[in-house]
Amino acid sequence: MTAEAVRVVWSPEMLGYDFGPGHPMTSDRLDLTFRLAAQLGVLDGVPLIAPGIASDEVLESVHEPAYVQAVRAAAEHGTPNPARGLGTRDDPVFPDMHDAAARVVAGSVEAARAVWSGQAQHAVNLAGGLHHAMPGAASGFCVYNDAAIAIRSMLDAGARRVAYVDVDAHHGDGVQAIFWDDPRVLTISVHETGQALFPGSGFARETGGPAASGTAVNVALPSGTGDEGWLRAFDAVVPAAVREFAPEVLVTQHGCDSHAMDPLTHLRVSVDAQRLVATWLHDLAHEAAQGRWLALGGGGYAFIDVVPRAWTHVLAVAAHTSVDVTVPVPDEWRELIRDRYGRSGADRMGDGREPVLRAWSTGYDPADDVDRAIRATRLATFPAMGLDADLD
User: In this predicted model, what pLDDT tens digit does every residue of 129-141 receive, in sequence order?
Assistant: First the structure.
């Protein structure tokens, strides 16, 4: 069997995961992304996975059975259950909540199985990456934790080591919590500090449970960090940790709410830098995980100006049809934006930045807030991995 280069999870039914008018987690993020990707030819010849709805057995590989039933009940009767995080401001109840969330899970699990079985080298589910959901509660726009369930499915299929890298502006707390004491899973999160941003966690001192010391890696960046600091932090921590862990598969979460235009966060990253990190993660999958790569979506709430471009780049990198940041956004897509929203969208696939990496080898600056965050992470986790916090 010859592996396909990439499989992509997509069908219009994925738009059902939507908390309603005015909520930041609008399904327009996906609709606009896939329209843009199609118009740029990124999806030409790419096999699309149209997932069904994950079974309770699949959901309960991570979630408590009582929670799954609570989601069903809330969706069927429209009644809030704040103790389970349902019917809150972040996670309002909507009629198809269970089915829509379970469909996202099915997409990530099918994509994971395709990668693990060798049917595809890479797979992408941009509807996925719902990294805040906990075993017994919804949290932060996330009902079911598809990322954790996808990882669990590969472990159950025989994977011995899975690395998860999360570059969302918000800490990947749910995935970390689920695998906190599991030495088979490395979780790395590069995010805005929890001192300023939900969920208030993800500090360097969070390094894993007693049986898995050093397998939770957190880089908590100061608010206002831009391209240079963001790329420096990623490069100073992620590649060395992933290489040392030697995963059999790499799972990545590409929340693009680190962008300067995002309305919910305070980082200052460009689409150009986000695209660069997607290419680095792709290359790292080939170097450290035999090319097995599952890429997921996540946050991102500048749904016109940022998300479609950032995620089209993720799709293009996975499909080995890279789109240059100078490429014009198609007129047809911009016309759709004008007709639907009464405004103009971006005219290029990048922000006109030229991100430059300032490598950690240039030296540590104790007066720099980003450098202090990086060093705190390396000191907390690298020795437990067998890495030198100063040299690797």
Answer: 999 999 999 999 9
